[in-house]
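re: ur question from earlier - yeah i can do the single chain one, its not a big deal. heres the input i used so u can compare w yours
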Amino acid sequence: MAQTSYLFRAAVILPLIVGALISSVAAAKSDIITGKPRVIDGDTIEVSGQKVRLHGVDAPESRQTCQKGGVEWLCGREASKAMRIIVGRSEVACEAIDTDRYGRIVGRCVTGGNDIGEALVSQGLALAYRRYSKDYVDAESGAKASQLGMWSGQFIPPWDWRRGKRLATAPINDNEVCAIKGNISRSGERIYHVPNGYYYAKTKISPDKGERYFCSEDEAAAAGWRKSKK
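and the output i got, formated as tokens:
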């Protein structure tokens, strides 16, 4: 009788244990997202319909500019371009680590055996996000020593840029040649205004905010400003 009772309990409990293990394995697998990515910006991709923010790194924002030798360059766009080159047309695998306040998955992603975040930081097109991780501090040190990417000149860390901090840019004298006004809107959009434009007279240039004058529309466009619609 005792043996029968033992076998009965085992028959009932064992499936429950196995079921729990299977559920645990399934849950672990669900933390890995795979697929061909769509690049959103320098540190965010979309994989299988889910946005994934790279863990431990922070790349310049899409509209962010940096300086080298006093000349601005579009470091935000270069970071996005580097991301596209790194992932190519290959599939990526992202290990979900957390979820940010925007509802995006924060994860460590690899493609072809290479850590995407580390690759970006090693090129100087993203920074080690020490506030959340120190995984890429060594990669950042290497990029800084070799003066790669953003480390080749001056830049504002992305986390400060999002708070409105900008590189100081000395304005060119407001004269008949360099009279195009490069203004930065409240949303951070860079818009230039030409003389006789609707907003030209109302637009004030504040160099401490990164605003400046341009000598031509081509110069303004190359620096990342768009023309005012009015």
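The chain has two domains: 32-161, 180-227. not sure if urs matches, ping me
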